[in-house]
Amino acid sequence: MPTIKPDDGRPIPDNEPGGASSSPAVDDMTLGNIGHSDSPADREDDSFVALFGRLVDDAERFVRAELRLYRANLFSRLAETRTAIIMILTSFLLAQSAIIALLVGLVVILRPSLGAIGATAAVVGGSITVALLLAWLAMNKFKAVTDIKDKAP
After folding, report:
1. Which of 7, 82, 94, 100 has the fewest CB neighbours in a 10 Å radius?
2. Are 20 and 1 in contact (CB under 8 A)?
3. Which sign, positive or negative, has the C-alpha torsion 62, 64, 68, 74?
4. Domain coverage including residue 26
5. Nearest 5°: phi and psi at 149?
6. Would you say residue 18 lies in a domain?
7. Distance (Å, rounded) from C-alpha 120 to C-alpha 106?
8. C-alpha dist (Å) from residue 102 to 90, 131, 132
9. Are 17 and 27 in contact (CB under 8 A)?
10. What is the pLDDT of residues 34-69, one digit of tens each?
11. Are 83 and 91 in contact (CB under 8 A)?
12. How many structural domains are present in the chain?
C-alpha cells in the first residue's frame, strides 16, 4: 500500500524510496552494500565454493563481454571497408570490360588480313595461351609457398 507524503498529500509508489516497500535492507542494497551483512547466512555465502562459483560467473561474463567487444569491432571495421571493397570490385569489372574491348578491337584490326574466322581464332588462341601461362605460373607459386621442406638431420 502506498504511503502518503506529509507535505502535499500525494501517494508515493511502493517502488520509490520512501514508499511502503522501502526498508533499511532495501536502502542498503541500493547503496551497494549487497552481501556485506554479518548474519550467519551471509557468512556461508563467503565460503570457498561460493567464492569460486562467483569467480567462474565473473569470468564467464568477462569472456562474453570481450567476445561482444571483438564482434562489435569486427563489424565496425567491415562497415568501414565496405566502400573500399565495392570500389575494388568495380575496378575489377572495369578492367575486365577493358580487356574484352581490347580483344574485340584485335578481332576488328585482324579481320581485313585474316578474315573474320581467322581473326577470331587468332584472338581466342592468344587469349587462351596467355590464360594458361598465367595459371601455370600461379600454380608454381602456390606449390613453392605451400611446399613443406623436410630437412634430414
Report:
1. 7
2. yes
3. positive
4. 12-38
5. -95, 120
6. yes
7. 9
8. 18, 15, 19
9. yes
10. 445 555 555 555 788 888 889 999 999 999 999 999
11. no
12. 1
- CB contact at 8 A, 113 and 126: no
> HSE of 150 in the Cβ direction (CA atoms, 13 Å)?
1
Question: Helix (H, G, I), strand (E, B), or coil: what is residue 7?
Answer: coil
Q: What is the pLDDT of residues 90-121, one digit of tens each?
A: 999 999 999 999 999 999 999 999 999 999 99
pLDDT band (50, 70, 90) for residue 147: confident
Q: What is the mean pLDDT of the chain?
A: 79
Grid cell in block for residue 117: 574466322
Is there a domain that residue 29 lies in? yes
Could you tell me which of 87, 48, 126, 17 has the C-alpha nearest to residue 5? 17
* Residue that is written with C-alpha cell 502506498 in the block: 2
